[in-house]
What we know:
alpha/beta, 8-stranded mixed beta sheet, 10 helices, globular
Amino acid sequence: MAWITCDFYSETLQLSTGIEVFIPQAALMPYGSSSKLPVLYLLHGRGADQTEWMRRSSIERYAEDKGIALVMPGVGRSYYMDMASGPSYFTFLSEELPRLVQSFFPVSGRREDTFVAGISMGGYGAFKLAMSDPERYAAGASLSGGLDLASRAAGPGFQEHEIRTLFGSVDRLRGSRDDLLYLASEFAAYGGNKPMLYQCCGTEDFLYHDNQTFRRYADSLGIPMTYEEEPGGHEWGYWDRKIQRVLDWLPLP
């Protein structure tokens, strides 16, 4: 497995940023092969960065076994959105980053080879990307995601200055495309190909209630989804196990 730290300037963000990339070398044999790899965009949690998955899990070993490339972007505490008072991270992730990745690395641009997953804040980001752009992703997975963001933002989980920076106000967030409950209703009505969705959360996780809210709403809309729960908290022992499950679940070629 080749591990690459890639720093570049983003026209969308108007700043220098970076990604961590894993490329399974064996999948490209013989050397010089023109093969394009399936790719999983792997999103970090709140308060972390693009190195989180490498430092806290065994994702490199799991991805090598599956022959899938990994792309891990860093977005700070942006919640994977175009911030009200800050850079446009969602536009960067949904439009600019895939084009750059396909030009820099031997990864496929085909929908059936493109997947997204994340933990906590990254679980929110993964579902947001998958449901916002169903023609780009074949599957999206949320591990302990913060999926009812509007309700959480109205509680003690966010400071007032963070609310203003991210989305202006809770009222502005609720019912917008940054609200996954609203986005789910658009997704359910979409008539084209829908990505597969996978959701899991430990029953002792502080985001368990949020996950139940999203799951019930998705069920009411008739959105097909693989849902799993079991004892577990908001921690890496649980996520390291579940990302193996996600890789087994993905419709890899």
